[in-house]
TrEMBL record:
Pfam families: Response_reg, Trans_reg_C. Coiled coil: none annotated. SUPFAM superfamilies: C-terminal effector domain of the bipartite response regulators (SSF46894), CheY-like (SSF52172). This is DNA-binding response regulator. One of its GO terms (molecular function) is transcription cis-regulatory region binding. Keywords: DNA-binding, Phosphoprotein. One of its GO terms (biological process) is regulation of DNA-templated transcription. The modification 4-aspartylphosphate is found at residue 59. Residues 10-124 form the Response regulatory domain.
């Protein structure tokens, strides 16, 4: 299990309306999160058992296993995964019921997307040891709030994945980060570990960082900054 706050947030979206689930997932990915989607309560429990999620966006009315039961089981297991419950009703008694089950926050449908993203972010802050707002090393300055990255004052213009990988390397503080850990924290569960996705991302990141080279490949172990 990783320390929460190692890096980019990993989110599970459990929502039986598939179109809505994919819309939410796409929006969260654009905000820089690694996201998996499931459409039933039993699938949600299976994924929550497999991966270390920071937040689950949990629809209350899931088929097969109700969202309330997913929340109950997650809380009973002592998981640090924060629960943001989605519900079709904004009624106060519904909200209270969801929070009584152990949900950390609550959003009624229809919701405004920016609000959902900011609530997910706020929950991450509660689940994780705080990520410092600025990370600096070797002339690189990473602003984790604005999601901007500079080297010696030059904007690096990184993609969300490249930003996440660079943040992981900076947070390791000179330590080596394995390709598996990069895949686990910066990609979603659909990433094929054999595609070389990490290698491709790393070569693009190296090119954007420019000379002198900063990222070392530690043969058979991973990468270090």
């Amino acid at each position: 299990m990783h320390e929460a706050g190692d890096i980019t947030m990993r989110v599970l979206v459990a929502e039986d309306e598939e179109i809505l689930a994919e819309l939410v997932a796409t929006g969260l990915r654009r905000a820089g999160f690694a996201v998996d989607t499931v459409y039933s309560g039993d699938a949600a429990l299976a994924y929550l058992g497999l991966h270390d999620y920071d937040v689950v966006v949990l629809d209350r009315d899931l088929p097969r296993v109700h969202g309330d039961d997913v929340a109950r089981r997650l809380v009973a297991s002592g998981s640090r995964t924060r629960i943001l419950m989605l519900t079709a009703s904004g009624a106060t008694e519904d909200r209270v019921a969801g929070l009584d089950l152990g949900a950390d926050d609550y959003v009624a449908k229809p919701f405004e997307f920016p609000e959902l993203v900011s609530r997910v972010r706020a929950l991450r802050r509660r689940s994780a040891r705080p990520v410092p707002p600025q990370l600096e090393r070797y002339g690189i300055r990473l602003d984790t709030v604005r999601r901007s990255a500079l080297r010696d004052g030059r904007d690096l213009d990184l993609s969300p994945k490249e930003f996440t990988v660079l943040q992981l390397l900076l947070e390791a503080d000179g330590g080596t980060v394995s390709a598996e850990e990069l895949l686990e924290r910066a990609w979603d569960a659909n990433a094929d570990p054999f595609t070389g996705a990490v290698r491709v991302c790393m070569s693009k990141l190296r090119a954007k960082l420019g000379e002198p080279a900063l990222i070392r490949t530690v043969q058979g172990v991973g990468y270090a900054l």
